Amino acid sequence: MAWIKEIDPKKDKKLNAIYDAAEARTKEKVANVLKVHSVNPDILKAHIQLYETLMFHQGSLSRKLREMIGVVVSKANECPYCVSHHAASLFSLTSDKALMKAVAKDYTKAGLSAQEKQICDYTFKLTNTPYKMTKADIEALKEHNLDDKAIFEINQICAYFNYVNRIVHGLGVELESIR
To answer: Max alpha carbon distance in the chain (Å)?
Structure first.
């Protein structure tokens, strides 16, 4: 599953409660990227809260855009684990297999709207060359009818996926069978 030992949730009441709550919410088994957090249930709980806030709570961005950002970041970081998970989520939201495959392969050839492409361009640049970001990158998003709240959400989701990709790569988290 990973390069570090995972704690059996049945041996830790706090961990078991977190797993039970997560599985009740998602109706799925806890993902391997979360299981690796078992060595520190407090961090696991905080991670889940951050993920749910960024990806599911009311905001300026659609769930489709949120998942698209996750796929673009994960593809840029060559993280098959997260590309697989979030491309599957993108498909479940859109039922568009061609879109899912195109975004997972090369978003620039996916036939995205101008706004979607601009969001992906920002995300890709921030992932690959964060030191080259300028105010012009923000202005380009604003020119595509995105306000400061939406831009902040894009930035935070991009940062989150960079964080998770590094957990996966740095701890050797293996892809489980999904959906």
So the answer is: 53
